Amino acid sequence: MILYKSIPFRILLLFNIKNIFSELVFLILNFILLLASSAFGFISSFYNDGSSLVKGFNFYVLFYLSCLLFILILRMVQFFYHNKIEDKTIYITLSNQVSRTKLFLTQWFLMLLICWINMAIAFILINLLNFSLNGFTLDYLLLRITTTFLIYGILISFFLINFIIFLIFIFSLQTTTIICTLILSFVFISNLPVNFQKSNEKNMTIKFSNNQLLTISDLYEVFDFQKYVNDNHIKYNFLSKYINDNFLEYKFDFNSFNSSEQNINNRINDIWSSLGIVNKDSIEIEQSDLTIRSLPKNDSNIPDTWKAGNSASINLTLKNTFITFDELKNLIETEQDTTKKQILQDLYNFSLYIEDQYSNMQVEKANLFNEFIFIDDEKSIIKNTTTNSEIKLDKKYLISLYNYELNGTYKEDFTLGNNSNTYELVRNKLNFPLMTSVRILEQYFIKYTSRYILATEKSVILNEGDWGKYEKSRNNLQIYLYLNFFNGMWTNYTYNAGFSYNDFWFYSYSESKIVFEEQKNLFLGYTEYKLNLNEKNQIYADTYKKNVKPYLYVVILFAFSMFNLIFTIFKFKRKDLS
Description:
The protein is an alpha+beta fold. It contains 20 helices and eight strands. Keywords: Membrane, Transmembrane, Transmembrane helix.
C-alpha cells in the first residue's frame, strides 16, 4: 500500500472517475449521447444535398448541446457538488491531506474532460460513418460544420460547467434545477422575436424618392444577395461576382435593361465579348424550300403579291453570335488568365446544369431569343420563290417565325409552315444554347442589382411608407439581441458553421428568385443587421456589415465564466463540508 503526504492529482482524478462511473444515470446519459451521434452519422449519408444536410445537422446540434450535454453537465455538477457533499465523500477525501482547491479542480477538470471526450467522439463518429457509408468519400461540408460544432461544444461545456457550479454554490439544488430548466426552455424560444420581426416586415414597404416601393423583405433579400456574392458564398461564385460587379458598374436598370439599345450593346460588347464567348465574325445561315404560313397585316414592307402558301427561302447573316459549348470548353483549356478561366469554367458548368433542368431549354426559353440577335440588314433577305421577289429580313420576322415554330405563338405575324426545313432552320441553325444560358443569367441578376442601385442611390422617404415603424421595431429587436446571450452564443456557431453555399442559387423555373433563409433553423440565432441610412437618407451600400461581431459574446461570457470559476473555488474553500 502506497502512502502519500499529499494525494497526487492523477490519483484524485482516478478516484473521481471511479465514483462518477458508478453512477447509473451518468452512464445512461453518455450512452444516449453516443447513440445520438451514431444515429446522425448514419442518417447523414442519406441527405441528397448540402442544404438538407445543414438543416438536419443544426437540429442535431440543438438537441445534442441544448438537451443532452446540458443535462449531463447538470447531473455531474449535482453528483460532485451536492451528492458527494451530502454523503460525506468529499469530507473523507479532504481528511487525507488533500487541498480543497486541488480536489475542486480535479472534479472540474474531469467534467470538462468528459464533455470534451463526448464532443470528440461525436465528431469522429459522424464523419467516420458518413465517410464509410458514402463510398469512402469525404464530405467537406460535413467536416466544416462538425469542426465548428466541436469547437463550439468545447466552449459551451466550459461556460455551462462554470455557470452551473456557480448556481449550485449560490442556491439550493431545487432552485438550481429550476433555473437550469428555465434556461433550457429559453434556449428554444430566444430566437422567436427575430422570427416575429421578419414575419411583420413582409408587410412593411419603403418608399424611395423616385416613388418606387419595395418591401422590407425584398430589401433584405437584395442586401443578403450582395453579401453572399461579394464573399464568394454562392454557387458559380466567380461568374456571379463578374456579372454582379459589371451590372453595378454600368448601373443597369430593370425597366430599361432589355429595351435600351445602349444597355444591350454594353452587355454584348463589354461584358460578354471580353470573355471571348462572342464570335468576332458574322455567320451566314441559308434555308430553302420553306412555306409561308401567315403574313402580318398592314405591313408596308411586304408586297401585296405575297400570300400564305407561297414558297420561300431565307439568307440570314447574324453578328455577335455566341460560341458553342465545345468551343467554350476549348477556350477554357487554352485560357491563360486565371480569373477569366475561373469565370468561363463557371459559365460552362452553369450552362450544362441549366440545360439539364429543362426538357427542352430552347422551347421553354424561346422568349429570350431577342436582345442578342443582331441581323446584318444589308445581307439578310427573305426570297419568295413563288413570285420571284425578295425583301429585307426584318428582326421582327425572325422573332415571330422562331417563336411560332417552338411554341405556336405569334400566329398572326410572319410565320412559316411546319415542315422539316423549318425545323432545321429554327431548332438547329438558330439554336444558340450558350446565348440562352447567358440571357437566363442576366434575368437572374438584373432584379437584384437594379434594386440594390435603387436602395443605395435613391433617398428613403421617411414620412411615407413604413420606415418609421420598421426603424422602431428593429431598434427594439437590436436591444433585445444585445442582451440575449443565448442568441449571441448560437450566432457564433451559425456564423462560423455557415451554410451549404453551393446550394445558394436561383430557382431554375423562376425568372429571378433566390432564397437565403431556407437553410436557417427556427430556434438558432444568426447575425442580424439593420438597414442604416446615411446623411442623404440612402441605405448604406455595406449596411449588411454593420452588425455586432459574434466573437464579442464569447469574450464577455469567457470573462463571466472565469469569474464564476474563481468565485466557486473561493466558496468551496470556505464551505462547511462536515
